[in-house]
Amino acid sequence: MKKIEAIIRKSRFDEVKKALHETEVNFFSYWDVTGVGNEKQGHVYRGVSYSTSDIQRRKISLVVSDHNVERTVETIIKAAHTGSVGDGKIFVSPVEEAYRIRTREKGTDSLS
Amino acid sequence: MELLTVNNVWMMVCTALVFFMHLGFSLLEVGLTRQKNAINILFKNVFIICAGLLTYSIIGFNLMYPGSFIAGIIPDYFFDLFGLSAPMADGSLDLAYNEGYTYWTDFLFQGMFAATAATIVSGAVAERIKLGSFMLFSVIYITFVYPIVGSWKWGGGFLDGLGFYDFAGSTLVHSVGGWAALIAIYLLGARLGKFSKDGQSHAIPGHNIPLATAGVFILWLGWFGFNGGSVLSADPSLTSITLVTTCLAAAAGGISAFVVSTIAYKNYDLTMFLNGILGGLVGITAGADLMSPLDAVLIGLVAGGVIVFGVSLIDKLKLDDPVGAVAVHLACGIWGTLAVGIFGSMAGFDQLLVQLAGVGIIGAFCCISAFIILSIIKATMGLRMEEKEETEGLDAHEHGMDAYAEFGTAHDR
Fold first, then answer.
1. B256 contacts: CB under 8 Å, gap ≥ 6
2. Which chain B residues contact residue A44 at CB under 8 A?
3. pLDDT (tens digit, 9 = 90+) per residue, B369-391?
């Protein structure tokens, strides 16, 4: 099993969510984060301008079986891509064990 | 009797409207400052109206209308008149007191004004002043400085004798608060992170612009009472023209600030627009009953420009004013007072000089007294929160409370 963490634009979230459901990935969590990177947003407040690279993003975290990793990553990239600086990143890391709390199923059985 | 009833009803409605301005100030201030200090700001605003009314009932009202003066300047008071006592005639309330309103209405209406003078300071010193120091300063300032200044004009003192005119308090309320705010932010220093070592100014955006907007609309509504009630009767023509000039000045002030700030800063800044509305309102307050609609618009247009330049000037002087209180209340308060000599039925060079004299004398008195009070507080109990306390937020350190307990607090800004 692998954990896939994707930081994406908030504006692409609905597309990504729909695309994931279409590939039958139905379980994931997401939360709002502030990202610092290459994209810059200009701000002005009462005459003082400040450009921040602090931009609101959304982070999605999902765990999938090994054979689904490539397909899922491809799905996310396709849905989250805009071509402009600031599209985000995806990280894949190994997961040691997984459980479904309701039934105590372990391993890949708990992922479906 | 019917005339008194009609007049008094209007005055009581206006009293309620001016009271409502405290909600306006609270929302404006909490919206333009950071989430981590929200409880603290609101606490100060709630304190001011409560303490202000109480001290005004014990000392302020009598000090402001003393009946006679010593050496023409000092209200003949000397603490022999604590508390309220309505004039009686034949054992019942003396209704000849005033054809416009009863003694009680007089006290309460004026009491609402007294508290607004101190609340002006609370916005300017936000996010870094010690709560206890602020409460002590504002009690002393509302109890003594505000009524003494008020006595010189509305209490029949020497400024009244000179012909100084201030219809609803551009100077007597707004500048009194504005001077104190200026002195306070000078002695207090800027918020941490506002100015970097090389003098560069940083933006510290407010955390709830919708509340700030609501606050300004509520203040505008309150001004219907602030100016409408300063007619001191329900006279149809005076009250109605006053409301018209008030609203036109507010609108003109807003548009002017919006246009000027857009040209200057190349963005549409809602907070400058809101400040401009308030600037127009403060600007018309000295002469709302004297101005024609066109005069009111012109006064408002100038006030809007004054706001933008005032905010910028305060920033250039390396003073930190989170809500623009000094620009709105002091700068536009001075403008509104001088405008009485430039526009309207009292315009004239001599009047302008008298207005200028009033501004100067009151300015000197307020600055000196605010400076003395604040310096003593600074030297004894201290004015400012510790660095760590200010960074982590006054709500956490002065109150141990969260303004939005179920929402994750914003990371330290």
1. B276, B280, B300, B301, B302, B303, B304, B305
2. 203, 265-267, 269
3. 999 999 999 999 999 999 999 99
